[in-house]
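batch job 7 of whatever, protein = Glutathione S-transferase
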Amino acid sequence: MTTPYQLYYWDGLQGRGEFVRLALEEAGVPYVDVARKKGGMSALNASLDGEQVAHPSFAPPVLRVGDMLIGQTANILLYLGAKHGLAPRSQDGRLWANQLQLTIADIVAEAHDTHHPVSSSAYYEDQKKEAKTRAKDFREKRIPKFLDYFEGVIERNPGRGGYAVGSRLSYVDLSLFQLLDGLAYAFPNTMAKLAPSYPGLFALHAKVAQRPNVAAYLNSKRRIPNNETDIFRHYPELDK
């Protein structure tokens, strides 16, 4: 069996790489999660080194396709979506999917900043006071604002099936699943209260989780558990 893809992302983290993993798993194509293999970190670091590669990425995830390196989650999914039937066929549809993916990236960044509002290089324990303030705003204002938007996208989609784009599953749906999954881990009380207000989003989450390839992945050792070194972290004091 050939392995057309090599994914470079940090070992032990779902992070931004998980959005790519879900697309690869749903597509059913073989790939290597490089950093989880022996010597993988050296290969990951090389993909970021401008002295070694022509187009270095600023940070993972990076996807190697033959001699080509693709960086940035949305950029990788733009490629995989077109290659594996996880995006609309038209240019207009693909740009719309990419726009939604970039919006997902915005809320993912805000979720990270709830526990690191002052500095990404400082420990959470050194910024707990600021984190409580940031998390309160995120819970009460920002999460509902983003979920309102994505619920409206699903409601207004003229395609059948309750998807975000068109009438069949796209990488945007997989990414919305991962977004809701991460928010539910980090803010379980908040998301439990919000869930009834977003029937379309949570129905989509359930639908994605039941897809055979995704379900098999979620129940496998390839799926890295949520943890407190990741983007979505559960600190009970931030979910009050």
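notes: The CA atoms of residues 189 and 239 lie 6 Å apart.
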